[in-house]
Amino acid sequence: MKRLFLLLFLLLCLPIVSLSADIKCTEEYGAGPNKFSLATGSPGELDLLNQLATTFCVMNKAQLCWVKAGSGKSLQLLKDKQVDMIMVHAPDAEKKAVQEGWAVNRSLIGSNEFFIVGPTDDPAKIAKAHSAVDAYKKISETGSKFFSRGDSSGTHRKEMSIWDKAGIKPQGNWYVVTKDFMKATLKRANDEKGYFMTDSSTWVAQKKDLPNLHVLYKGDKYLVNTYHALSQPDSQTPGAKIAAEFIKFVGSKQGQDIINNYGKDKYGESLYNDAEYAKQYDH
Known about the structure:
Low-confidence stretches: 1-17
Structural class: alpha/beta
CATH topology of the largest domain: D-Maltodextrin-Binding Protein, domain 2
Order of helices and strands: HEEHHEHEHEHEHEHEHEEHHHEH
Number of strands: 11
Shape: globular
Number of helices: 13
Oligomer: single chain
Radius of gyration: 20 Å
Helix content: 40-55%
């Protein structure tokens, strides 16, 4: 009986190191014995993760479980030890995670940027804006319909920081919170002819299906979006070690070439910039 109680005590004290029942793999890549999990949003949605993971898994006899989640949710999953690594774009939150000790191996992997898209007639006249803050002020002042993901993703965090810089607390019928991912929110903005801030990668991949939307504002350096990878500290989860190796691979010449060329064959342009380009915007 004492041994039974001791066993139960040890089990209760062990950290949670596997995906809980309500967290499922969105996709799985590879079929090797070295299993690890990763939470991220658009790199997975746009199939870039597939290309990176497939190459890595063959080389390392690994299997990757991708959990689709925005940056905010991905960071929480890492903190709760529900995944082995993440790819996100929330620099301040990333740095805090490293400082607090529950994330390591923070590595710059690439970048894209944000575009503010909207209907052809541009009711708020943001095409004449001189900054992202000015564009948001024009949208608010005219009460033009604006869509927000409202999900604590990197996109949502960036959006809210712009409203804050503008001194505006967005609210009212014109401000629509979707609680949804990038592609789904873009579709609503297209269908209802409203404004939305999307990452350039998703826009390039989806614009052919969004006839009512056009890029109306871009070019503000504040809208450049850097991506970092972070992993669990060593031994905190079963896949922490192989996850750290995957981060090294993504930062290698082979991994960076995959990122830099991704999308060129299908769209005529790359959907992401590599880490070398992104360095000038990293902070």
